[in-house]
Amino acid sequence: MKKITVIISSAFLFFSFFLSRADEVNEKIKLWAAVSVTKPVFQSNSTENLQIFFALVNDGKTTVNPETDSSRLFINGKELEAWSFIVANGPRSMNYNALPPGGSIVFTYAMGNYFTNSGIYKVRWEGENFKTSEITFRVLPKPIK
Q: What kind and span of H or E run contains 18?
């Protein structure tokens, strides 16, 4: 009987440990993410100035790798295939791969060549542990002279 009690107690402690570790893992990664553009309306002949800004804030209690290099960018619901190349290039802050609690990273890319046609664009960015709200902006046709 004592042996069964020891086994049951050990099993309880074992599972309690792993359940608490699972809560800690879920607690560790709390990222707030956002995307924005410089203005809500562009002319199709001036989208070369169109920049998209990306931001992440670590609202968790431990340092995390936000893994932005494996993130995905969606334009009008379609994944941008070139995004993996785009996001893997450019300058990096010191905390790009090790974002401390309360820390943030902000970076931008000139992406006007993806928005040369007139129309309404909806952009969303997501990674394994974050997802932005969708932003909307518009590209107007070339002005008629």
A: helix 2-28
Query: Across-strand partners of 78?
Result: 75
Report yes or no on 38 lying in a domain.
yes
Evaluate whether residue 17 is within a structural domain.
Answer: no
Distance from C-alpha of 50 to C-alpha of 43, rounded to nearest angstrom: 10
In a domain, 22, yes or no: no
**CA pseudo-torsion sign 61, 66, 72, 76:** positive
Range of the domain at 44: 29-140
CA–CA dist 7, 9 (Å, integer): 5
Q: What is the CATH number of the domain that holds 72?
A: 2.60.40.2970
Q: What region does 133 belong to: left with phi over 0, alpha with psi -120 to 50, or beta?
A: beta
Q: What confidence tens digit (pLDDT) does each residue in 9-49 have?
A: 554 445 455 444 444 455 658 999 999 999 999 998 889 88
- Assigned domain for 57 exists: yes
Which contiguous run of DSSP H or E holds residue 57?
strand 51-58
Residue type, 1: M
pTM: 0.78
